[in-house]
């Protein structure tokens, strides 16, 4: 029902239980700068549906418990991202490598993920010097 709103820049679907099919409808929103898709049933395949939204500056995919490191791989092309929340997912230290291209990233939330501080610090030191705000706990 929203696909005709192609000029949309901000969309908050917090708690809307969006599925992979629902994310396929978001491809029309090429101007999206912020997107909240918390608490849904999105898998890595659903994140692939939004990977071409390269104007995205803020992305919140928290509480989508089926997301893995593959979701970070899809996100890696969203180089305008300043803020990313992927808390309460199955993301691990191994997936952090996919964040390396996100040079504008200043805020990252990975609460309740299998990620450790030493790996975050290594990422900051080698690839993301602007990453100032990190939440793990």
Automatic annotation (TrEMBL):
Cited SUPFAM superfamilies: RNI-like
Gene3D superfamilies: Ribonuclease Inhibitor
Cellular component, GO annotation: SCF ubiquitin ligase complex
Domain of life: Eukaryota
InterPro entries referenced in this protein's UniProt entry, alphabetically: Leu-rich_rpt, LRR_dom_sf
GO biological process: SCF-dependent proteasomal ubiquitin-dependent protein catabolic process
Listed Pfam families: LRR_6, LRR_8
Full protein name: Leucine rich repeat-like protein
């Amino acid at each position: 029902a929203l696909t005709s709103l192609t000029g949309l820049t901000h969309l908050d679907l917090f708690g809307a239980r969006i599925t992979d099919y629902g994310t396929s409808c978001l491809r029309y929103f090429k101007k999206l700068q912020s997107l909240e898709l918390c608490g849904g049933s999105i898998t890595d395949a659903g994140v692939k549906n939004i990977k071409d939204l390269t104007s995205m500056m803020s992305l919140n995919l928290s509480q989508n418990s089926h997301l893995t490191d593959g979701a970070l791989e899809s996100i890696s092309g969203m180089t305008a991202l300043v803020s990313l929340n992927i808390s309460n997912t199955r993301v691990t230290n191994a997936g952090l490598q996919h964040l390396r291209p996100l040079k504008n990233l200043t805020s990252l939330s990975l609460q309740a993920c299998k990620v450790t501080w030493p790996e975050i610090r290594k990422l900051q030191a080698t690839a993301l010097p602007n990453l100032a705000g990190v939440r793990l706990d």
